[in-house]
């Protein structure tokens, strides 16, 4: 096989959210293993296991699902913008294919941050919404280098995982459909 035809069958919203969830669960596990007493204090501070899970759901999982959805959309759009329909099946071409998406993933913060932070504000701020809090804490306050760097690591992991999963899925489908020698 000389080239892998890209169907992007795994570049879907559900796959994006699933990959984001796996990354989140892994980081949460590492956090609990590394600082169990601190996390236990946090859980007791918010009122127990169920309030802690609700806090994680509304402050992290649901807003970051928006991040994953927008990253998936941007990756699909980049395939269309750059006219990428296939990748040669050698390491150099695959590396080049993935490097094309580095600027897309690096600039994705501009697109997803306002959406993610708006959803986070709506979930965390209920029922006391304040426009000044929304602007200063959730929007303008998050457009900073430390927040960008934290998100960049997450987006690169999720984005490249999605590209790899999709590429491997396309490769598997094409090799399983091709006649055996």
List the helices and strands and how they pair.
Elements: E1 3-5, H1 13-34, H2 36-46, H3 49-82, E2 86-88, H4 91-100, H5 102-125, H6 131-139, H7 145-177
Antiparallel strand pairs: 1-2
Could you walk me through the main structural features you see in this protein, from its secondary elements to its overall organization?
The chain has helices spanning 13-34, 36-46, 49-82, 91-100, 102-125, 131-139, 145-177, and strands at 3-5, 86-88. The protein has a two-stranded antiparallel ribbon. The longest helix is centred in the middle third of the chain and has 34 residues, at 49-82. Helix content is 79%, strand content 3%. It has one domain. Helix 2 (36-46) crosses helix 3 and helix 3 (49-82) runs antiparallel to helix 5. It has 181 residues and is mainly alpha-helical. The mean pLDDT is 93. The chain crosses the membrane at residues 12-32, 52-75, 95-112, 148-168. Keywords: Membrane, Transmembrane, Transmembrane helix. This is DUF4328 domain-containing protein.
Keywords summarizing the entry:
mainly alpha; 7 helices; two-stranded antiparallel sheet
